């Protein structure tokens, strides 16, 4: 019998007041990676055979994918009181050819699923929350329609909601722009074996590809499910004909490296050491490179195969760095910059504008509440810290990362003291890390609720 986990059903207050904290220390076991969890769920569903997924992320975004797969006729079961799931693969063909699919605000769910549905064909409507209908999907739809799919917009052209009809993918070469979201390329790569039954399929990237480490995750997981992708740098990717997804039997989900950033930054700001478990030197996630940015700011970082540890080594120093490769974790650096000497510059972060909210605008607005001087450009941000961080009420824009980032402004650093932070709508963390504030309170050795 199918069982449904409900991590977002816990009760959250309308706001949460975080008092200043002098020092943090401890060990954090990370929740599963959102990027790995949702990719793994779709690959397990499309594969031949049964896949046991260990340590799947418990969050709104994974529930969205699980619910969609269930509506498509995929059978899955959650093991009692664990985050281990068993998925019965459908061997490349969803049993249900008609479905209405609600995808919330989960980009890691909607985009790869649209690719698979467009190739397999049927009669599907795909929609989400209001913000999802403001997040672009046109580059992916264009690539699929040019290859023979039939996808219509039922709202604003270029954005969900979508109506997917039964098309006929015939193209052997597809092109997709790479400068808005790497998830478009991920969607085409994951759908490519479904197109390559009788001929090779090559996907060409037009222009610069952003967030390359996320493509590395996609390629790594596809290989675990038996499909190898040949590549010409970052410009072309080929799936040879006849390959299909086959279950690896058991697959473990790494801890979420983006979530690790908040705790590593806490250790760098307020003493430490803080150790995160679930990611390390062996991680397939690009966001582990966040630790390199902290090292450049002067923090002490040590690494094991499955853990990373951060501690303060004096006052943090301002940096000027390109964050195109780790845009999600880069938000944490913008808040850590409050504790640095000098002006920190984050470059090549235009993708922030098409995330759960316009993160460039939102981060600039909230950082200014704390007294920071912020310059916001089309694809960059500079943060000059105030002499003293000001108490503030932080609006979170229904964006989990806004809530988690600004919790750090309650910490006392070497350069300046933290302040009381009121976090509005803290329930938004349920998207990826429902227990974030309890875990954050744990490293502060305080009771939260």
Task: Give a written overview of the molecule.
By secondary structure, the chain is an alpha/beta fold. It has 2 domains: 217 residues, UDP-n-acetylglucosamine1-carboxyvinyl-transferase, Chain, CATH 3.65.10; 204 residues, UDP-n-acetylglucosamine1-carboxyvinyl-transferase, Chain (Alpha-beta prism), CATH 3.65.10.10. The chain is 30% helix and 23% strand. The protein has 12 helices and 25 strands. It has a 4-stranded mixed sheet. The chain has a 4-stranded mixed sheet with strand order 4-5-3-14, covered by helices on one side. Strand 22 and strand 23 form a beta hairpin. Helix 1 runs parallel beside helix 2 and helix 5 packs parallel to helix 6. The two termini are 35 Å apart. The N terminus is likely disordered.
Summarize the topology.
Elements: E1 15-18, E2 24-29, H1 34-46, E3 50-54, H2 60-71, E4 75-78, E5 85-88, E6 98-102, H3 107-120, E7 123-127, H4 138-146, E8 150-153, E9 162-165, E10 173-177, H5 182-195, E11 201-206, H6 212-224, E12 230-232, E13 236-239, E14 250-252, H7 257-269, E15 271-277, H8 290-296, E16 300-303, E17 307-311, E18 316-317, E19 320-322, H9 327-336, E20 340-341, E21 344-347, H10 359-369, E22 373-376, E23 380-384, E24 392-394, H11 400-407, E25 421-424, H12 436-444
Parallel strand pairs: 2-15, 3-14, 6-7, 10-11, 18-20, 19-21, 24-25
Antiparallel strand pairs: 1-25, 3-5, 4-5, 7-9, 8-9, 11-13, 12-13, 15-17, 16-17, 21-23, 22-23
Helix pairs in contact: 1-2, 1-3, 1-6, 3-5, 5-6, 7-9, 9-11
């Amino acid at each position: 019998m199918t069982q449904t986990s409900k991590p977002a059903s816990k009760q959250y207050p309308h706001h949460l007041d975080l008092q200043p904290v002098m020092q943090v220390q401890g060990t954090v076991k990370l929740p599963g990676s959102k990027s790995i969890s949702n990719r793994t769920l779709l690959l397990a569903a499309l594969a031949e055979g049964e896949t046991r997924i260990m340590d799947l992320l418990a969050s709104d975004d994974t529930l969205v994918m699980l619910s969609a797969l269930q509506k498509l006729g995929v059978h899955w079961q959650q093991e009692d009181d664990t985050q281990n799931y068993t998925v019965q693969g459908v061997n490349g063909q969803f049993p249900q050819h008609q479905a209405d699919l609600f995808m919330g605000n989960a980009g890691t769910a909607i985009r790869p699923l649209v690719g698979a549905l467009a190739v397999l064909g049927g009669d599907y409507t795909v929609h989400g929350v209001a913000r999802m209908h403001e997040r672009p999907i046109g580059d992916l739809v264009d690539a699929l329609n040019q290859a023979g799919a039939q996808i219509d917009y039922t709202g604003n052209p270029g954005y969900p909601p979508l109506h997917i009809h039964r098309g006929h993918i015939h193209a052997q070469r597809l092109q997709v722009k790479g400068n808005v979201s790497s998830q478009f390329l991920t969607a085409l790569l994951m759908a490519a074996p479904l197109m390559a039954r009788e001929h090779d399929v090559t996907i060409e990237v037009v222009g610069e590809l952003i967030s390359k480490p996320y493509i590395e995750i996609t390629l790594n997981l596809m290989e675990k499910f038996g499909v190898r992708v040949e590549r010409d740098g970052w410009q072309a990717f080929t799936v040879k004909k006849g390959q299909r997804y086959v279950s690896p039997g058991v697959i473990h989900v790494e801890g979420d490296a983006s979530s690790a950033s908040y705790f590593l930054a806490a250790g760098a700001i307020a003493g430490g050491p803080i150790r995160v478990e679930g990611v390390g030197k062996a991680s397939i996630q690009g966001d582990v490179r966040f630790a390199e940015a902290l090292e450049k700011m002067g923090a002490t970082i040590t690494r094991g195969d499955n853990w990373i540890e951060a501690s303060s080594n004096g006052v943090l120093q301002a940096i000027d760095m390109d964050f195109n490769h780790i845009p999600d974790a880069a938000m944490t650096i913008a808040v850590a910059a409050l504790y640095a000497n000098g002006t920190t510059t984050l470059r090549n972060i235009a993708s922030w504008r098409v995330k759960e909210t316009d993160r460039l605008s939102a981060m600039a607005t909230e950082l200014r509440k704390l007294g920071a001087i912020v310059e916001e450009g089309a694809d960059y941000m500079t943060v000059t810290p105030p002499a003293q961080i000001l108490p503030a009420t932080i609006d979170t824009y229904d964006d989990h990362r806004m809530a988690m980032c600004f919790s750090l402004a309650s910490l006392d650093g070497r350069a300046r003291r933290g302040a009381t932070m009121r976090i509005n709508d803290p329930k938004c963390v349920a998207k990826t890390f429902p227990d974030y504030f309890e875990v954050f309170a744990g490293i502060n050795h305080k009771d939260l609720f």
